[in-house]
Design brief:
The complex is a heterodimer of chains A (about 260) and B (about 475). With about 260 residues, chain A is an alpha/beta fold. Chain A has eight helices and twelve strands. Chain A is about 30% helix and about 20% strand. A six-stranded mixed β-sheet of chain A has the order 3-2-1-11-12-9. In chain A, strands 4-5-6-10-7-8 form a six-stranded mixed β-sheet, with helices on one face. In chain A, strand 11 and strand 12 form a beta hairpin. Chain A is globular. Chain B is built from 16 helices and 15 strands. Helix content of chain B is about 35%, strand content about 15%. Chain B has about 475 residues and is of the alpha/beta class. Chain B has a six-stranded antiparallel β-sheet with strand order 1-2-3-4-6-5. Chain B has a five-stranded parallel β-sheet with strand order 13-12-11-14-15, sandwiched between helices. Chain B has three domains: about 80 residues, 2-Layer Sandwich (Phosphorylase Kinase, domain 1), CATH 3.30.200.20; about 220 residues, Transferase(Phosphotransferase), domain 1; about 150 residues, HUPs (Rossmann fold, 3-Layer(aba) Sandwich), CATH 3.40.50. The chains are: A alpha/beta (about 260), B alpha/beta (about 475). At the A-B interface, strand 8 and strand 9 of A face helix 1 and strand 5 of B.
């Protein structure tokens, strides 16, 4: 479905060329999921890639995931830091037992250049009227979750960006703040574009590539058209069994494999 | 950026502003033109300056999101929009003529005209609901008509799109809308039930046929809340000649609980198109409102008026389809008609809100007009109706879910297709005759229906053994094992 039935007479066209962004968050070293999402994004005409952090952790292919994101960044992609990426270089991170076990395993797998790449990722990146951040904008290093309208409002008050794109929750969501500071919340419908109206400001949680937790095991990402300001949440079925088998085969906690199959 | 001032002659994104045609509380409407667009256009500009109603902004944003996504004859076409950063506007097709508000001076209308108007609005609502949108402001001034007759719904500022953020949901604590037409569940904050629009249409139909609004004109929340427990005076109390079928339809639309209303706008349109087949219940006879004991139970038994969990518009529409079944009563295909009944029974058992239209085509000769009476003096049309009811009887469907129709036509397939189109049938069930002489001579009715229908078609064939026995050939005495 598209709303571009009419000439886009009112849209403000930026000078930039790249208008179709593919936004990935929480890849979590899931090679099967990330490969499927990259292919799906290219098929949808993605011209630029944004990676919202947590490239590693939980999954069994951290070397491949980091190499792939490094390659994308070399080609012009933007990547910001997630709490799992940060935990590779900062072992004091406060995490649950499974996450901790996976990070310790991951640290041993990554090369020095790969660890350096993760350590140097910025916490936030702003371009034009868009802010990219892993958790939320008010204090990104505290890794707080945007669970509802009050957390969304706190993040929106900390930035003047028209749209904040974030991950960290592993469940797609969309919040808006009106000019009168009233909040709305919404659970996006897959493949139905939403126009991010210019009269209000938005925070879009894009869902997780490598470990979805909304009950749907399909990998999640989002496409943002910066000219029409339409954002579309996409779901991609992938080879979950192989991703889960690789987690078990590498001695990682079995729960991390089981949850992929259930999307929890 | 400086906002351009809007006056006749102003250029905005290629549109040339003409005269101002309306100044309302929420927006102004301007006639505009654009080179290359040959339909008359209106530009709607919200009133957003200091001190204006904040609802004007939010309802404009809802229109900005919803209107460009709508399609079809029952909504104005959308040709452009501008955002708040510069000059907010939407450009829509200008529908010629007046809204139904213009008719208020001449109420009550005749029953037949009111039935036609309400049927057109119900059809438009069905089309809107299928596009995932609930209008939420159905009233005379929201309804116009094309020259070709279709109702056009306008003003989507209070609408709800089931797949888009609802900016009105959390913005305002009180329900926004037009008080006399607002469904009771809206007062409880429910915005995702398409049957709210059926209630508003019921208010309109009541008003247009009696000259009185069923719940008065109270604008206070307290006055509006009365409709959560107090039913309106039955129209027959106001007009003694009020047709029972019309009262049945109107009072069903005005049921306090959405679940007691028609399941879908399509089903309401179907009832309005077939008044003679409306199942009359106690509603149709009523002359008085509910007794006070009932009203008090509704008022103080809060369980009845609690908000329901979120409903899915598409799922709700899918649970109440109109199913049409084509039955050949004449050829007495016992096995096939039994198979059709089994198929329909299975279908209806999963869809408790579906309704079934049983149709039969009385074939007319191409040249001579058939006599209505056969040699024995029977009326063929009535015989067929009786046969259809007889076929449907084992299904034990309530009369409110079952109608029978005999179509007189030269070409049976075209008649079935026309019926399904006019009545917005969602699913056709039809039998395929096996190897009959008629089929080889005339072509297959089911094949034509299946290939040309715009809805789902199920073609039913009897099991092979049943075909064999129906044909009565020697093969049916063969042991089963040899059949394969």
């Amino acid at each position: 479905m598209s709303v571009k039935r009419f000439a886009r007479v009112g849209a403000i066209m930026g000078a930039e060329e790249k208008v179709r962004l593919a936004v990935f968050a929480d890849i979590h070293a899931n090679r099967q999921a990330f490969s499927a999402c990259l292919a799906a994004a290219r098929a949808r005409g993605a011209e630029r890639i944004i990676c919202l952090g947590d490239v590693v952790g939980y999954g069994a292919d951290p070397e491949w995931a980091v190499d792939t994101v490094m390659g994308l960044v070399d080609e012009g992609a933007i990547a910001v830091c997630g709490n799992h990426d940060n935990a590779v270089g900062t072992p004091s991170e406060n995490m649950n037992a499974e996450a901790q076990a996976a990070i310790e395993w991951t640290r041993g797998r990554l090369s020095a250049p790969q660890r350096k790449f993760l350590a140097e990722l910025p916490m936030m990146h702003q371009e034009d009227d868009r802010l990219y951040v892993h958790s939320e904008a008010s204090n990104p290093a505290r890794w707080r979750y945007v669970l509802g309208t009050s957390e969304a409002a706190r993040s929106l008050e900390a930035t003047d960006a028209h749209v904040t794109l974030c991950g960290h929750i592993h469940r797609p969501a969309l919040y808006s703040m009106s000019s009168a500071a009233k909040m709305t919340s919404f659970v996006p419908t897959t493949d139905v574009p939403v126009q991010l109206l210019g009269g209000r400001r938005w925070i879009a949680v894009v869902g997780s590539v490598g470990q979805p937790r909304d009950g749907n095991p399909a990998a999640a990402f989002a496409m943002l058209d910066t000219a029409s300001r339409e954002i579309t949440w996409c779901r991609v079925p992938y080879d979950v069994e192989t991703a889960a088998d690789r987690i078990r085969a590498n001695g990682l906690p079995h729960w991390l494999a089981d949850r992929l199959l259930a999307g929890r | 950026m400086v906002k351009p001032s809007i006056e006749p002659g102003t250029q905005l994104d290629g549109f040339t502003i003409g005269e101002c045609v309306h100044r309302g509380g929420m927006a102004t409407l301007w006639s505009v033109t654009h080179p290359g667009i040959n339909v008359p256009l209106l530009m709607k500009i919200p009133r957003v300056s200091e001190g204006e109603d904040p609802a004007a902004i939010v309802s404009f944003e809802m229109e900005q999101m919803i209107v460009p996504r709508l399609a079809g004859p029952h909504v104005p076409g959308c040709f452009g929009s501008g955002d708040f950063e510069r000059q907010p506007y939407v450009v829509i097709e200008r529908i010629p003529g007046k809204t139904l508000y213009d008719r208020l001076g001449g109420l009550p209308l005749g029953y037949e005209e009111a039935r036609e108007i309400a049927g057109k609005i119900a059809t438009a609502l069905a089309d809107l609901h299928r596009q995932n949108v609930i209008h939420h402001d159905i009233k005379p001034s929201s309804v116009m008509f094309r020259d070709s007759g279709e109702a056009v719904l306008i003003d989507f500022g209070l609408s709800h799109h089931n797949q888009l953020p609802d900016l009105l949901q959390e913005e305002f604590r009180l329900p926004y809308g037009t008080a006399p037409y607002m469904a009771p569940e809206r007062l409880l904050g429910v915005r995702d039930d398409p049957r709210s629009d059926l209630f508003s249409l019921g208010v309109l139909l009541y008003f247009f046929t009696t000259g009185e609004r069923p719940f008065g004109e109270s604008e206070t929340l307290r006055g509006m809340r009365r409709r959560l427990w107090r039913d309106p005076h039955p129209p027959r109390k106001l007009r003694a000649d009020y047709p029972p079928w019309l009262q049945e339809i109107v009072l069903r639309c005005l049921e306090i609980e959405p679940v007691w209303r028609h399941p879908t706008a399509s089903q309401l349109a179907f009832e309005l198109a077939h008044p003679e087949q409306v199942k009359l219940t106690a509603r149709s006879e009523r002359l008085k409102r509910d007794p006070l004991s009932t009203v008090w139970r509704r008022r103080f038994n809060r369980g009845l008026t609690q908000p329901k969990p979120k409903s899915d518009l598409a799922a709700q529409l899918a649970s109440g389809p109109i199913v049409a079944i084509a039955i050949d009563t004449e050829e007495g295909f016992g096995a096939l008609n039994e198979c059709l009944r089994v198929t329909v029974k299975q279908l209806l058992s999963t869809l408790p809100q579906a309704r079934l239209a049983c149709i039969n085509v009385l074939k007319l000769g191409r040249i001579t007009l058939d006599k209505t009476l056969d040699e024995q003096g029977h009326n063929k049309h009535i015989d067929r109706l009786v046969s259809l009811r007889h076929w449907a009887q084992p299904l034990k469907l309530d009369d409110s879910r079952l109608t029978v129709h005999v179509l007189e036509a030269v070409d049976p397939a075209s008649a079935i297709l026309e019926f399904t189109k006019v009545n917005h049938v969602d699913h056709i069930v039809i039998g395929a005759r096996q190897n009959s002489l008629a089929r080889s001579l005339l072509g297959s009715v089911s094949a034509k229906v299946a290939s040309e229908a715009s809805c789902t078609v199920t073609v039913v064939r009897p099991p092979r053994s049943a075909v064999a026995s129906a044909q009565g050939g020697p093969d049916d005495r063969k042991p089963k094992a040899l059949e394969a």
